[in-house]
Amino acid sequence: MKKISIIIVTYNSLDLIQDCIDSIFNFSDVLQEQIEIIVVDNSDDVASFALFELIKKRYSDSVLLLKNKTNLGYGHGNNLGINASTGTIVCVMNPDVRFTEPLLKDVFQKFESNQKLGLLGYKQMGGKNLSFYLKPENQWSIFSSGIVKLFNRINFFNSNNFYLSGAFVFLDKSKFSLIGKFDENIFLHYEEPDIANRFLKKGYDIYFSRQKKYQHLIGERKTVSDFTIKVQSQSLKYYLEKFNIDKRGFCNQKKIEYQLKISIARLIKDHERVANFENELKNILEILKD
Questions:
Q1: pLDDT tens-digit readout, 31-70
Q2: Which SS3 state, helix, strand or coil, does residue 147 take?
Q3: Which residues contact 258 (CB under 8 A, 6 or more apart)?
Q4: What value does the mean pLDDT take over residues 247-272?
Q5: How would you list the strands of the sheet with 205-216, edge to edge?
Q6: pLDDT reported for residue 15
Q7: 267: left (phi over 0), alpha (psi -120 to 50) or beta
Q8: How far apart are CA 117 and CA 108, in angstroms?
Q9: For residue 182, what are the CA distances in angstroms to 121, 185, 199?
Q10: Triad 60, 80, 175: Cα angle to 5°
C-alpha cells in the first residue's frame, strides 16, 4: 500500500503543533494507514519534553517522535525524518501550516499520472498568498517583488524561473534521495531553490497546482534579528556560489532595489517598511564580506 510520510520539523512550536496535526486528520481523504506523521524537534530538552508529552497524550502512537540531539538546521531535521520514513511520497510541512481541504488523494493521483514528477506544491493562503518565488538568479530587476505578486495572483508558475514555497510540499522520496535530499550546508533559508535546481538538473518535473489550497499562518515580520540576518546571508552566499551565480552583480542589483524601496518608504513615512528594507539590505551587503 502506498503511503505519504508527513515530516514536521519543529522548534519551540508547542503552540502550533496540535492544530497542525489535527488539520491532517480532519481533512484526510485516504485511509489512516496511508498516512505516516513524523515530528522532528530541534528545540532544547525542556521544550521538547513539553511538546512530546502533548503529542503522546493526544495522538498516542499515531505520530512518530524524533528528538534531534543538536539543532543542525531545518534541512538536517527534515533529512532525519525522511530517513526514518516508510512512505513512497514525503510531505514537508511547517508546524504553522494547516490543511483546509482534502488533498491527499490528489497527491497520489498526480504522482501516479506523471512518473517524472519530483516535487509538487499547492496554492498557499497566507503570507501575502505567495505560493512561489523568483529564484535568486532571476532577481535581476527592481520590479522582482511586483513580478512575484502578479504571477502568484494569476497562478502562472514556471519551474525554470520560480521555486515553490517550502512550507508545504510533496516529494517523490526515491527521486529526492537520488538528488541528495536536503543540502545540510544550508542551515535555514534558500533550501527551496537549491532543491528545485537539483530536481530540474536530473530531468524531473516540478508542478504547482492551484486547484487545492492550504493555509500558512505567516505574517509580515516587523523586525529581523541579527541572527536571522546572519543565517540568511550565509545561506544566500552559499547558494550563489554553489550555482556559480555572479555574487557581486546580484548584490549590486539588489542594493539598488532596496535603496529605492527605502526612499519610497521614507517619502510616505512608513517607518516599519523602512526598518524592514534596511534589514534586508544589510542582509544583502553581508554576502560581499569575506
A1: 999 999 999 999 999 999 999 999 999 999 999 999 998 9
A2: helix
A3: 277, 278, 280, 281, 284
A4: 88
A5: 63-67, 35-41, 4-10, 89-93, 168-172, 117-125, 205-216, 97-99
A6: 96
A7: alpha
A8: 11
A9: 17, 9, 12
A10: 115
Tens of pLDDT, residues 91-138: 999 999 999 999 999 999 999 999 999 999 999 999 899 999 999 999
Number of Cβ within 10 Å of residue 271's Cβ equals 10
Radius of gyration over every alpha carbon of the chain, rounded to an integer in angstroms? 19
CA distances from 276 to 6, 110, 233 (A): 33, 39, 15
Q: Return the bridge partners of 121, or none.
A: 169, 208
H helix runs in 202-246, sequence order: 226-242
Burial annotation 15-31 (CB, 10 A radius, 16+ → b, else e): ebbbebbebbeeebebe
CA dihedral 176, 72, 219, 46 (to 10 degrees): 130
Largest CA distance in the chain: 60
Q: Can you state the percent helix, strand and coil of the chain, rounding each to 5?
A: 50, 20, 30
Q: For 205-232, b where at least 16 C-beta lie within 10 A, e where not — what string? A: bbbbbeebbbbbbbeeeeebeeeebebb
How many whole angstroms separate alpha carbon 14 and alpha carbon 208? 30
Pairwise CA distance, residues 100 & 237, whole Å: 36
Q: What is the distance between the alpha carbons of residues 272 and 290, in angstroms, rounded to a whole number? A: 30
Spatial contact of 213 and 101, defined as CB atoms under 8 Å apart: yes
Cell of 127: 503570507
